[in-house]
Hints:
By secondary structure, chain A is of the alpha+beta class. Chain A has 5 helices and 5 strands, in the order ββαβββαααα.
Amino acid sequence: MTxxxxxxxxxxxxxxxxxxxxELLLNVLRDRLFLTGAxxxxxxGECGACTVLIDGRPxxxxxxxxxxxxxxxxxxxxGLARGDELDPLQxxxxxxxxxxxxxxxxxxxxxxxxxxxxxxxPSEEEVREYIRGNICRCTGYTSIVSAILSCAQEKEGA
Amino acid sequence: xxxxNQTNTRLLLPEFxxxxxxxxxxxxxxxxxxxxxxxxxxxxGTDLIxxxxxxxxxxxxxxxVKDIKExxxxxxxxxxxxxxxxxxLAALLRLPAIRSGYSALYEALRSMAAPAVRNMATVGGNxxxxxxxxxxxxxxxxxGTVCTLSSVAGERRLKLCDFFLGPGRTALLPxxxxxxxxxxxxxxxxxxxxxxxxxxxxxxxxxxxxxxxERDGDRVADCRVAVGSVAPTxxxxxxxxxxxxxxxxxxxxxxxxxxMVEDAIAPITDARSxxxxxKAISRILAEEAMQAxxxxxxxxxxx
Lengths: 158, 303
């Protein structure tokens, strides 16, 4: 297998590294760059634990070849905070006790971030629909949904 | 690790060579060059990478076509939709023309997976994967979709209903690639719908069904009905069509057509459902999908 050099923007910083074709983005993030926020859950696109943003939209790092993200922008949960200041969604997850074992939390937060960027004032139903690919095996959905809703802007005229 | 083990996935994929063409012509050249060497096309990867992780597939060459601009996006020409094969499901869902004019396709896309997978998965990939349960298949079939299959030798056109040959098998020849889908413009007094039953929402279908209808007053002027997950390929049901065409719409016609759908299919029992359930539920789904398409074509709710 031929190693390839790829350049990506990772959490705002340009990175160049050499990867083998069969390396998955998730392996590169966790094992080589030590960004262990994204998790290996099911490995087949069912659970959402490995969700990161690629070019601004949620995608599954466990089904993405690292070599295929050459030239793209990747944001992981580690890239959400600004210095010591957490993203409002991260604060909300803490405030609402929306973390039990924590395994689904990074993926859940990345998906929720994308939802709020697309639709700043979602209804509860829209939140539940949008996070349907992120599985919480502790079944803490009620507090997760309230945490996300607490970051929603009030609808104009509501 | 045991390659037969289909439930555990590998952290690392088997080895392969990776090719990233910049243009369609270059992609076709790679496919031709490696046509006898177990070459696979990589688009969204949500099916292919899973198959590689479970050991079901071990390609020697992967040709990544996902970032080829001329294969992506939707153009509207004289009312018809020209859908690039690597257009993502999410991009199609965001398109107002699909939401307003092609209900069957919109509803199929809405029923599929979750936002992250829809951002990755492509419509061409969903079709070329050749699953009998592919949700875009029956929707695009009833909308009369024509595929463009390209190779270094040129292009040919094939109706989507002739594209599927069996589970995982399509009409694509070695060296060929699905490059575009052509869907006709929306006709007046027409309507379509898609319904599916899965175990939970976003699941793979136990049964899916799509209906397209053209209405002339209180009669069905033309129609197409397709079902998935009940045969080795998604199926266009001609018997139901010849019955419905020309009929005056009524509750009785709907239930007769629903019974014909049930009779026309011979599903299997598998991990997702039993044959008996698939038959029984397909009748109900068919009635509901036909009624929805009829109402969307401007018809009254049948009594």
